[in-house]
Amino acid sequence: MAEPLSTPEVAHKLAHGHDKSRSERHSERVEIVEAILLAVVAVATAWSGYQTARWDGRQAHLYGISNRERAAQNRASTRSGQEIIYDTTTFGFWLQETANGHPRAAALFARRFRPEYRVAYQAWLKTDPLHNPRAPAGPIYMPQYHNAAAERAEAHGEKAAAAFEEGTKAREDGDHYLRNTVLLATVLFLTALAQRFKVHRVRIALLAVAACLLVVALYYVVTYPTA
């Protein structure tokens, strides 16, 4: 027959068994917290990475639009410069023939004026420029003078600047999500590191730090704009 246990021995075993059970329950709760942290970190990291890729794509798209508008601006600006040279040159020949008393030759050059320039030219003639010293120096200085190519160049330039600015903003938003991914990686590292410690206080301390960083990272995820 087994030797009966004394009362002190029974009390010791019951207390030891109770402490062990409480320790196991504590470890299980810590493991549950770690699992929750890892799950949340995994989802948040995937979302941050997705948004980083989306913002990078939007940045590339907007920069592409900006480059296209800049190219259109350059073409329109070149066209505008050529038209201004044509207008001033043709007007110079008209003025020369008019001053030399050759009305037929002057009329020939007048017929070569571009429609946009002709409107300003006719308004300029009404100022009696050949006798009025206060008249504008030429039709190009009249308020009626417009150059559609120059206006197109200005419009393309504004679109290019706006697209470039939006692309820069998109790059900054992507960088925010990228930095948040690094923060989430830190949370993942601390959680994995906590699992290596058997001392509950150290383990819980690391998890507490990881949880605080995770809250900050989740706040950024919620407040950052989405692409």
What does this structure look like?
Helices cover 81% and strands 0% of the residues. It is mostly helical and 227 residues long. The protein has one domain. Helix 1 runs parallel beside helix 5 (200-223). The longest helix has 93 residues, at 7-99. The radius of gyration is 40 Å and the shape is rod-shaped. Residues 10-18 have low confidence and may be disordered.
Major sheet attributes? none
Order of helices and strands: HHHHH
Total number of helices = 5
**Strand fraction band?**
under 5%
- Overall geometry: rod-shaped
The CA-CA distance between the termini, in Å, is 78 Å
Q: How are the SSEs ordered, and which strands pair?
A:
Elements: H1 7-99, H2 103-110, H3 115-125, H4 148-194, H5 200-223
Helix pairs in contact: 1-2, 1-4, 1-5, 4-5
Which key phrases capture this entry?
227 residues, mainly alpha, 5 helices, 0% strand
Q: Can you describe this structure in just a few lines?
A:
The two termini are 78 Å apart. With 227 residues, the protein is mainly alpha-helical. Helices cover 81% and strands 0% of the residues.
